[in-house]
Amino acid sequence: MIEGIVFDLDGTLYDNDGMDLANKRAIVRAIAEQMKITEDEAQEMLERALGKYSSSEGRPSLYGAALQLGVADELIESFQLEHVIPAKILSADPELAREIERLSGIVQLALMTNTRTTIAAAAIQALGIPTHAFAIIRGGDQLARPKPSAFDLLMICKELNIKPEQCVSVGDRWSVDLAPAHEIGMQTKEVDGRDELYEWLCGISV
């Protein structure tokens, strides 16, 4: 029986490239400012870092790559808050909002994403989903390790007081969202975007 669901954000709760593009713009500007280089040079540096810090577990997030380059988190945050404004990028999704709110009365819900926590919460609100539907909203700035991270999934299960095998990790990327969950015995659900997620959620009952 499912007692908890841990959602990914981008590509799962919504299909919108605007958030990714805005975040990349913010990261590039932060690198340029930190290193005192042009934005074109910062873009090249970011791409090299994404390749350098990749591993068998996948590529690091843009945020993680910038931190690896030594960019101050406060600087990254300032540019992200300037550029990544969910209310201007995302549209309300009443159908999905109703379904998630319904499920919050049945199982415990959590959100785990490499997106900064404040921006993730703003994205949830922009979709029309009440943030109180999620017992936990944990963004990249609050993760012990950036996704893919089995450690943080396990910590969320512990905080929810749910055994991993009673919890489902839902996301659009196997290597990032689901493989780490599988490692610790969680159930997994891979979805190809918002519509597939919605259809799956509608099938969950008490």
Describe this structure in words.
The chain is α/β, with parallel strands linked by helices and 206 residues long. It has ten helices and five strands. Helix 8 packs across helix 9 (174-183). The longest helix is centred in the first third of the chain and has 19 residues, at 17-35. The termini are close together.
Task: Give a brief description.
By secondary structure, this protein is α/β, with parallel strands linked by helices. It has ten helices and five strands; from the N terminus they run E-H-H-H-H-H-H-E-H-E-H-E-H-E-H. The protein has a five-stranded parallel sheet with strand order 3-2-1-4-5.
Average pLDDT figure: 93
Q: Write down the CATH topology of the largest domain.
A: Rossmann fold
Which bin fits the share of residues in helices? 40-55%
Number of strands: 5
Number of helices: 10
Radius of gyration: 17 Å
What is the N-to-C succession of helices and strands? EHHHHHHEHEHEHEH
Architecture per CATH nomenclature, i.e. the level-2 architecture of the largest domain:
3-Layer(aba) Sandwich
Which CATH class of the largest domain? Alpha Beta
Q: Looking at this structure, what is the CATH superfamily of the largest domain? A: HAD superfamily/HAD-like
Query: pLDDT below 50 for ≥5 consecutive residues: which ranges?
Result: none
Most strands sheet = 5 strands, parallel
Q: Assembly type of the shown chains?
A: single chain
Overall morphology: globular
The helix/strand class is alpha/beta
Strand order of the largest sheet: 3-2-1-4-5
